[in-house]
Design brief:
315 residues, alpha+beta, Elongation Factor Tu (Ef-tu), domain 3, Membrane-bound Lytic Murein Transglycosylase D, Chain A, 3 domains, 11 strands
């Protein structure tokens, strides 16, 4: 007997369903979320690792009533068509469930797709491929009690806040403004050399817009303006608070571990090469923090560039 054959059957438990089924084949895919940041005149790219992507499992199952494996008897009904019908019906629940895989154990996941095939040549049986995606929304471990970093959660909170508000009020222009502002903040806190003041300004914009949304949709007694006073808007209220908290943390973190960058006004016609030599700073890093400079070989008098305050001759 092979090792794979000795594993227990798989199972899927979600609200209203608890189903065991045999596994004919299992494919798992996973990846890391890597952000490439290319720098002028340097080979390769600086890679930021923002964590792991959700794992996906594609499970091939043969539903045929002659299959006998320990654990299938708990279903109490034949594999075909009853267990197959239950599994496909469970896709309509749209909630996180417990998926037990023979080679992985228990994981929290959501049902994504199924591909069912039945042919005249294989009567009273069906071949189906199910796809499940790992879900960490309600995963409770040590990381659940840590404050999430601003750059890792900005877009997710913006999208969730927008979704929550649209689900109860069909959206509003200020929600779009808020989403755009949070996305801008994410870009700033991800950039290694942006001015701390820029991050703080973006954070203040988000706090202002979030307060605007709250004021606009918390007007008791005004139809269409009382969205956030409804009990079903509790999640939207919670997301708005999280967005405001995110902005506050981003502002607090903006100066932590971030090189101090200042604005430097060029006094004579020059180039980025001469500026780097005069200030005794890295040309490559100066080019990174000055993406607005299209022609580094000629910088006109009066041009404002960004330089580092902690090194060289800058005061």
């Amino acid at each position: 007997m092979t090792i794979f054959a000795s594993y227990p059957v798989a199972s899927w438990k979600v609200r209203g369903f608890d189903i065991a089924f045999p596994v004919a084949g299992l494919r798992e895919t996973g990846a890391n979320r890597l952000i490439e940041r290319e720098r002028p005149y340097r080979r390769g790219a600086k890679l930021d690792d923002t964590g792991s992507k959700a794992r996906r499992w594609s499970i091939s199952v043969l539903f045929e009533n002659t299959i006998e494996e320990s654990g299938l008897e708990r279903n109490g009904v034949p594999l075909y068509p009853d267990v197959l019908r239950l599994l496909t019906q469970s896709f309509d629940v749209h909630e996180v469930g417990d998926l037990v895989l023979p080679t992985q154990g228990a994981v929290r996941a959501r049902a994504e797709t199924y591909d069912r095939e039945e042919t005249p040549d294989s009567q009273d049986s069906a071949s189906v491929t199910f796809t499940f995606i790992e879900d960490n929304e309600d995963d409770v471990d040590s990381t659940s009690f840590k404050q999430p970093s601003a750059n890792a959660n900005a877009r997710r909170l913006a999208e969730q806040t927008t979704f929550d508000m649209e689900s109860v009020d069909n959206g509003h222009f200020s929600i779009s403004d808020l989403t755009e502002a949070v996305s801008n903040l994410e870009g700033l806190v991800n950039a290694p050399f942006d001015l701390a003041q820029d991050v703080e300004n973006a954070a203040k914009t988000i706090q202002h817009l979030a307060a605007r949304v709250v004021n606009l949709f918390s007007q008791t007694g005004r139809r269409g303006r009382d969205t956030l006073t409804s009990p079903k808007a509790a999640r939207a209220n919670r997301r708005l608070v999280q967005v405001q908290d995110l902005a506050a943390r981003a502002a607090a973190e903006s100066r932590r571990g971030r090189p101090v960058v200042v604005r430097y006004v060029v006094q004579v016609d020059t180039s980025m090469f001469q500026i780097a030599g005069f200030l005794r700073q890295s040309l490559a890093d100066l080019l990174v923090i000055n993406p607005q400079i299209e022609q580094p070989f000629y910088i006109a008098r009066g041009t404002e560039v960004r330089v580092f305050a902690a090194t060289g001759q800058v005061r």
